[in-house]
Amino acid sequence: MDFSWLPAYGGMFFEAFFLTLKLALMAIATGTILGVAAGILLTSRFRLIRGIVRVYVELFRGSPLLVQLFMVYFGLPHVGVNISLNMTTVLVFTLYGGAYIAEITRSGIEAIPKGQWEAAESLGLNYFQTMGHVIFRQTLKIAFPSLVGFYIGMIKDSSLASVIGYSELVKKSQTIMNMTARPFETYIVVGLCYFIICFPLSKLVSYIEKRSEAK
Amino acid sequence: MFLDWLFPIYHLPELLRGAAVTLETSAAAFLFSFFLGMLFAIVRFHRRPLVLYPIVTAFVEVFRNTPLLVQLFFIYFGFPQFGIMLSPMQAGMLGLVANSASYYSEILRGGIQSIPKGQWEAADCLGLSRPQVFTRIICPQVIRDTFPSITNQMVLVIFGTSVLSILDVKELTQVASILNSQSFRSMEIFTFVMLLYYGVTTLALAVCRFCYRRWFAAKTERR
After folding, report:
1. Chain A partners of B152 at a C-beta cutoff of 8 Å?
2. N- or C-end of chain B: fewer Cβ atoms within 10 A?
3. Looking at CA atoms only, how far is residue B112 from chain A in angstroms?
4. A14-214 in CATH: which number?
5. A170–B69: do the CB atoms touch at under 8 Å?
6. Is residue B174 part of a domain?
7. Distance between the two ends of chain B, CA-based, in angstroms?
8. Which tens digits make up the pLDDT trace of A87-125?
9. In this complex, do A63 and B176 lie within 8 Å of one another by their Cβ atoms?
10. Minimum Cα–Cα distance from A65: chain B residue
11. What is the pTM of this model?
């Protein structure tokens, strides 16, 4: 093993690391917004709404992210929609993340005892008030560990964006690898970059889970 | 722009052959990784043997906290540097099994930990040997309790095989990519493939549900 090339390429790694972080954070933010909205709709009283959202969630939870990336990346221009690579990537990650987060939100909402709804109703709160002031914040507490767990997954999954040419850590590392001809060491450094974000987060998840079990 | 939804149907034989490779790969990766994950879980639970425990722990943490794609590249492009040449399928399998085994070890370790101590003691009192206690008493309960997580991870293994397409393993996604580059009927092909994957995972989940009912439902109290 030989890491003597690393100082020369350190800056490039650093830059690539931030690109990955940027993509992951964007995807997490938009995915969470979509997912929470879809999750609330999944608990709606109206069967039609539930049905439509269910189809979306099932489809995107039931197929690999890579196929979704290919479908949007190759498919959208094919049907005449031309959007930039950045937009494509963020769109796919939003749809993908949204589907999983919707399911996390739904199970969180359904875990709230019915008495909470009834109590809110007897206080004269309407649906939106109940959801906003009573149900949702409790849901957040229940869903937090699985949500962070999924965010870790999103950070790791963001590596797949390199396949359609989005320039992030893995994509940049291929360039570095071609210049240094040191694939083994290069991928150790790349792995380390993901590890230093994901490891503390997964420790946080198990800490929260352990604490809530102890209660 | 016009969409020819029959196009994937014309190429159904190729796609189904790809789907068969996906299923085979997933099944093999699942079995190996489950077995390996169980061994890891035992080491992690007992914190013994002393030499193995830190190694297994480090292995599990590293593979759980880095992307599968990076692991695959590491194996496929990195190992030849030391003269270890692997075919795409071998490298993909190795990466997928290592990745999934790490997840299974955490799922199963959690399961073993949540078995009440009385079960171990009662089995000991009956005069069962250590391996017997584990295989006859503890293991079935662990599998029963963690069944939803096990099936969940199995679905992730199926999705994981799609990443092998990047190493040019001719599974469903790679077959679709090849068809796509030949015909540019992207939307039709990938929508169809998405549905195929949905079918494959639904099928796998149905089999799991059947197994669960067959093995465990009668023995646990109805809720």
Report:
1. none
2. C
3. 15
4. 1.10.3720.10
5. yes
6. yes
7. 54
8. 999 999 999 999 999 999 999 999 999 999 999 999 999
9. no
10. B159
11. 0.91
